[in-house]
Amino acid sequence: MKLTLSVIKADIGSIGGHIAPSQALLEAVRRHVAEQGRDLLLDSYVSSTGDDIALLMTHTRGVRDEAVHRLAWDAFLAGTATAKEQGLYGAGQDLLKDAFSGNVHGLGPACAEMTFDERPGEPFLFFAADKTDPGAFNLPLYLAFADPMNTPGLILSPNMSAGFRFVIMDVNHTEGDRVIELNAPEELYDIAALLRDPERYVVEAIYSRATGEQAVAVATSRLHNIAGKYTGKDDPVMLVRTQMNFPATGEVLAPFALGHFVAGCMRGSHQMPLMPVPLGSGISYFDGPPIVTCAAFAEHGGKLTEAMDAFAHPFWDEVRHRVAVKARDMRAQGFFGAAMLPMSELEYTGITQKLARLDERFTVRGA
Ligand code: F6R
Ligand code: MG
Ligand code: MG
Using CA atoms, how far apart are residues 75 and 77, in angstroms rounded to an integer? Predict the structure, then answer.
C-alpha cells in the first residue's frame, strides 16, 4: 500500500519557561487527535521533545493533505487553550498566523512528510530536536548517507552502492522553495560545500539512487522567514526509513555520538553541542543543551508498533557525559567568538539597536 507518514510539530507552551509541555497540554492534544482523527488517520503517536509537541500520523492521503494538516492545526489550538488555562509560558507560540489556510507550511508549525510503497518490514526513525534548527541534521545525514567511514553499507551492500540523491534547500530564500539536487558520491564535495553552512543550506530529503525511493524527510521551515523576525529557533523534526536499500538504523544513529556543535541553546543565539536524550526529555542547562530524541518504529498497514527509545540505551550515557563537558567548555568563553552565533542568526534584535547607537559615537581619527 502507499502510505504517508506525517510529522507536524509546534511549541504551544511550556512549564518553567521553555522546558517542557505539561501533561494536561499533551493530553489535550492527544485527545483531539484521537477523537478528530478517527476517520482520517490509520494511527498516531503524540510526543514531546523539550518544549515541542510532535504529532506523528499515518494515513493514505498523501503529503500536504488539507484535512491532516487541519487536524494538527486544530489539535495545537485545542492544546493552546489548555496552555492558557494553566498559565504556561509562550502559549500558542508557534501558531504565527490567525487562520488555517490549506496546509501548515508558512503558518509556524514544522512539518516533515513522505509517501512510499510500504515494504514487508518497514523500520523507520522519527527524530525531534529542540533548541536548535534544521541544519542540525546536515552533518548526521551527510555521514550516514555519504560517508563510508560512518556507513559500511556504502561499500558492503549492493543495494546502496549507487549512492543517494540529496535535495538541499536554501532556507534564506523567502520567496519560495529554492532547492538543488546533488548526487553522492560523484558530487560529494559540492554537497559538503553547501552543508558546511547549516544556517543557510539544509537537507530537505534524500532518495536512493538505486530505486528512487525516499529515505529521509526533514522539516526545513525557518520561523523568522515567516514572522519577519526571530520568534524562536526552528526545532526540527525528521523521518528516516532504514535498512534494505537504506542505511541501517545503527548507521543513522552513529553520527549522533559526535555531539556536534549546532546553532541554538540560550536565546537561540549560541553554538552548543547536540545531546541525544531519552524520549520526552525536557530542557535544563543554559536553556539547553540542544537535544535530539529518536523514536524507532515498525509499522504495517499504517499501524504503528510501540516506540523504541533509540537514545535510552546505556551506550548514550557516555555520549551525554561528553556533550555536557563540551557544553561547559564552550560556556566558559561566554559571549566571545565561536560561543555565540553571528549577527544574522541572533534571536533577539536588542543588540542591533545597541550597535546602531554605538556606531554614531565612532569617530575617524584625523578626518
Ligand atoms: C531558546 C529559548 C530560550 C529563550 C529564553 C528567553 O530557543 O527558547 O532560551 O530564548 O528563555 O525567553 P524569553 O525571551 O521568552 O523570556
Ligand atoms: Mg520554545
Ligand atoms: Mg522548542
Answer: 5
